[in-house]
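Z., the sequence and structure:
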Amino acid sequence: MKKLVIFYSLDGNTKFISENIAEEIGADILELKSVKEIKRNNVMKLFLGGKQAMMKSEPEIKPFDIDLQEYDTIFIGTPVWAWTFAPALRTFFSKTKIENKRIGLFCCHGGGPGKIFEKMEEKLEGNEILEKIMFKDPLKHDKENDAKKAREWAGKLIEN
């Protein structure tokens, strides 16, 4: 069974969780990157990212060379922007066909996830959604515990 972790991360929280999941289950990893990335230290990042999310923007993402058909189980992670997934993930969903996969969904948020998982599931129709999990700013709050929680969650999903 081949496994893949797909994620977008701006501040590093989702990347941290993704790397822990991938290491725990021996998964390949695909980090989505926008061609024109929002600057991390820019005070306007929350406004710009939130506006992109609310407007359902699809920013251009950098090409990748992973064939999704090779994978049975995929974990997909995103930060929460304006109660939805990051715009780079919206682009990925619109440009990529994912079907008949076992999928685990995860997010990192600073205040609340909104209906992020419902919105992701709409984009992933035709797949088996295994479970969903969220983390509150793991790099700022409880990094070690969140790493452990992510590893245990992913390991449990792979065992089942």
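The chain has a mean pLDDT of 88. The first strand starts at residue 3 and ends at 7.

Let me know what you think.
H.
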